[in-house]
């Protein structure tokens, strides 16, 4: 009889953000995105990158980053609201207005 492997329990949470962008402002969004990668990493997360349009839709981008737990993510959100570098990134996008809308989802990994 084959042994059924036990499911592993991972506490990691990955945030998936789907952006709808102004396709004429992709360079501005990329500048904004590049600011966030080290910020998320500095604040305890692991940024997996931004994925910008290449083929297909020209106005959809995705970001993926993980935190050890939802509580750690919530702490990151609290810290980012007070961090001067994060505030500068928010201000840059407020001026650029490259993001038309976004959807945030939280996922858990299924790993081998």
Automatic annotation (TrEMBL):
SUPFAM superfamilies: Dimeric alpha+beta barrel. InterPro entries: Dimeric_a/b-barrel (IPR011008), NIPSNAP (IPR012577). It comes from the Bacteria. Gene3D superfamilies: 3.30.70.100. Residues 17-110 form the NIPSNAP domain. Pfam families: NIPSNAP. This is NIPSNAP domain-containing protein. The lineage of its organism: Bacteria, Pseudomonadati, Pseudomonadota, Alphaproteobacteria, Rhodospirillales.
